[in-house]
Amino acid sequence: MKLTPPPPLPAAAAPWNRKHLLGLEELSAEDIESILDTSESFAEISRRSRKKVPALQGRIVFNLFFESSTRTRTSFSLAAKRLSADTQDFAPSSSSLSKGESFIDTAKNIEAMGADVLVVRHPTPGTPHLLAKHVKCSIINAGDGAHEHPTQGLLDLMTIRRAKGRIAGLTVGLLGDISHSRVARSNIWGLLKLGANVILCGPPTLVPKAWEQIGCEVAHHLDDVLPRCDVVNVLRIQFERQQGGLFPSVAEYSHFYMMTQERLRSAKEDLLLLAPGPINRGVELTPEVADGSHSAILDQVTNGLAVRMAVLHLLCSRMEPQGQSAAS
Ligand code: CP
User: Fold this and answer.
1) Distance 67 CA to ligand 1 centre (A)
2) Which phi and psi (to 5°) does residue 188 adopt?
3) Residues within 6 Å of ligand 1 by CB
4) Looking at per-residue confidence, does 275 or 47 come out higher?
5) pLDDT tier at 15 (50, 70, 90 boundaries)?
């Protein structure tokens, strides 16, 4: 059988020198654009008939998820496989954590098995940052409590840039539970750095005025701000992180903030509607809106794979000795 060489990877978009991806707050606009440009290259590879490239051959990527996940865990696994890395899921509930082994010792043991990258989701904010201080391998934050979810922020930016051709100058509304949302924080940092106008909209108990201090507009009446938005990102109410009592009832929340067909009539014709998922149909948006022509919800999921390939590739490429690029 004649073996054909694997398709070459496109050249890296810009020099990348970071070891970890912990949040978008610490990235520059150039860093973010570099990831988005590299993600476009990987999106192109995903459209080829042969989708697998040898970029991470010999690398080991561990998923450490201490919270449930459908999209993030699966797409990190698939991204690593498409880059030819070995992947391993760590299952906390059946691990020796239950015998008293510490989190740091657990991570050090996983690193001792040769892990190059740990992808970490944890309910406690700052957990990936703590790990980065104790292990030598790269850490990717896959969501730390209500703090950040950088790859979700990046895939949202990629989806907006693809649909609108730019980020700068757009008015982007983040709707709902801003206080408890790591997706909101990563979106806010990414959007502000790339020059978007950010409106945070929701009940006062979930959208504090303090956000104005970093350059966001804060609004409590969706119907007032919706006509100005080019993009609205509909965030889930994070019941699991709330103490309760932040609004009278889900029905009242939906009355004021659910995205409906009727509300869309006051929006721009080309409004782009995002939702990070999981979505709660009938709470934050109606089924017709979720599946309607404005919605890019499944495009976000597709773009997430390209973003996670790009992040894994960039972090691992910087580990290569000079002259041995992982892309070669
Ligand atoms: N958006 C997101 O992070 O989804 P999962 O919780 O399913 O990973």
Assistant:
1) 10
2) -60, -50
3) 69-72, 143, 149, 152, 276-278
4) 275
5) confident
